[in-house]
Structure formats: structure tokens, C-alpha cells
């Protein structure tokens, strides 16, 4: 089962709309819809960053675009009612939507749609307008396509279908948040040059508790900097956790490690003698970074732990379900890139041997993401350090 799928459904006007669905990376605890105004291209870092943060916290995200991508044949949402249709399509798949997130015009659409989706318990907005004034003042017909309207925003031009502006023109966002029967989080930058901070003030003052406001400091309207996206994504994920169902317990861990001990050997700069699980071996750093290369590095050990746990979990599941799994090979690689959120990425490639159907293989792949070490790495663990007295020779 891939982390990123596509979901097609009939929109309010009967058009087929295709949206991107990011599946939870941890134990599922809920589902969200992100309504944004950035066509699904590499520049939609706000949508990607928030979806990734929520997925790491067990929340799947359907990303619904409210603009038209240049050169794209995809159909995009053009009315707040499309959010209701998206929520219904998600519910039909067993994914009840508990959280709405909206950015820019998408935030206004989310505010308009929230009351019509009874399952929504929380609404988060990014750079939300209280009315259409900031966009109507900038709107101009697109030179190449009369069916589109250009909306300059920061250094980009958003292209929207006129139907969206017409649908939002009659939305009283202030009145909608005043009557909102859900928790509200407003994120806005004081220096937003497209939607003035006064819009956030109007929305926040009108809303009932529980409500929260978080400043995005010097972020631009489009959240074009990764650091701003990371901050907003972390805040939304942490805030939403209070309003979404608690995750159901996973299967009991294969075993809780009693611990491991690392003792310097005195050979080379980094070589350590490791005692773990009744076994002993050497750990070291590669020669290229000053080690002797006599054993796995600390990051190698993390990869090994995830690979072993993945293999063991799949074996336990296959035995329990009576699947014809004759062998498992799990290979975990680690890479780091400043463009990733987070910067560290572990990739697990799993080889499954046996006469397994496509459905059985998909089920095993889903179970791999439930391995206890996978869950601990995704969720994070509290680490408590102490200085203790020397007790050995």
C-alpha cells in the first residue's frame, strides 16, 4: 500500500475531481482534508509539509486543490461544496474526516464547508481571509484562458476558476466561525502582504472557544520557505492531536529491550564493544570519517533494528494469518537531505518470497508500518540521560 494515493470523486457540479491522499505513517488515528490554493506541483510545499507532519502522527490527509495548474488536465475543486463531497467520498472508504485544514482561499472554503461536515471536530487555517477583498482587488482575467482568473500573490500568480470566487463571495466567514461547532486554530503572519493580519483578528475575535492563534512571524502568504512550513506543520499536528481519537493499541511489541551497553575498546578513535541481547560485537565508524571500520556505525545499528523488526513482524503476521510466506528480506537505507521534512529518511525495501497474492502482499506492506520499531521511530521516544558512578573494572 503506497503512502500516496489518488482519490477520485464527483464534485458538487458533477465534475470528477482527483485529489491526493497521503496515508498515515503511524497507527491511524484520523483523517483530514487540506484545502489549498497551490496546484499540485513541486511548489506546493505547504500542503506537502503539513500532510507529511500529520501522516507521521497517524493522520491521513486528502489534499484538495482549489486552483488550476498550468498545462494540467486535472480537474480542481471550484466550490466549497466540493469539500463536502470529498468528505463524503472519504467516509465511503471508511475514512471519517475529523480535521479540516485550509490555506489562503482554501482556508475560506474550509471555513464555509466545516459546518456541513458533522464529523469535523477541528479546523486549522493558514493565512485565511475574512472576506474576499484582498483577492478581488488583485483579480484580473487570465490573458491566455478566459475561463481563469489570475490572482497575484507574493511572487506567484494563482489561477482560479471564476466559479470559486463567486461561490466564496456569498460566504460570511466571520459569521461561520462564530457559529463553528469545532475547535479553531488560526495561523497568520503579521507581515502577510496579500491577506492583512487584520483578517485573522476579525476571525479570532468572532470565534468561540476552544480557539487558538499562532503567529507565523515573517512568513509570506504562500509559505514559500521550508522553515515556515515545518513550523506550521508541527503546530497543526500537535494541536490537532487533542481533538482526534486516540490511536488504538498496536499488537504487543515482540520484546522490550532490557538495554545495551557500549564500552570503548581503546582501539582507534571510535571503536566500542557492544553488549546487547546476550550477544557481543564491535561498533565503529567508517575509515573515511576516522574510524577503523571494524563494525556497524550507530546509524547502521538503527537501520538494522528497523530491518530486523520489520522482518519479525511480517513473520508473526504471516504465521497468524496462515499466509504462504516462505521468506522475508528487509533492507533499510538511511539518507539525509535538507529538502526533506524531516531531513532524515529511512527507506525499507522488503522482499517477500512465497506464492502470495497481490492483496496479501499489500496487506503485509501495511503491517510493515506497524512494526514496533517503526512506530517508535515515527512517534519519537523520550530519552533520559544520567551520569552514574563507575561500577565495573
Quick gist of this model?
With 393 residues, this protein is an alpha/beta fold. Strand 8 and strand 9 form a beta hairpin.
Structural class: alpha/beta
Number of helices: 11
Count of beta strands? 16
Strand content is 15-25%
Which residues form runs of ≥5 with pLDDT under 50? 39-43, 68-75
Average pLDDT figure: 84
Q: Kindly report the spatial arrangement of strands forming the biggest sheet.
A: 1-2-4-3-5-6-10-11
- Fraction of residues in helix: 25-40%
Estimate the global geometry from the Cα principal axes: elongated
Cα gyration radius (Å): 25 Å
What distance lies between the first and last C-alpha atoms, to the nearest angstrom?
Answer: 52 Å
Q: Profile the largest sheet.
A: 8 strands, mixed
Task: Summarize the helix and strand pattern as letters.
Answer: EEEHEHEHEHEEEHHEHEHEEEHEEHH
Can you walk me through this structure?
The chain is of the alpha/beta class. The chain has 11 helices and 16 strands. The chain has an 8-stranded mixed sheet with strand order 1-2-4-3-5-6-10-11, sandwiched between helices. A 3-stranded antiparallel sheet has the order 7-8-9. Helix 7 links the parallel strand 10 and strand 11.
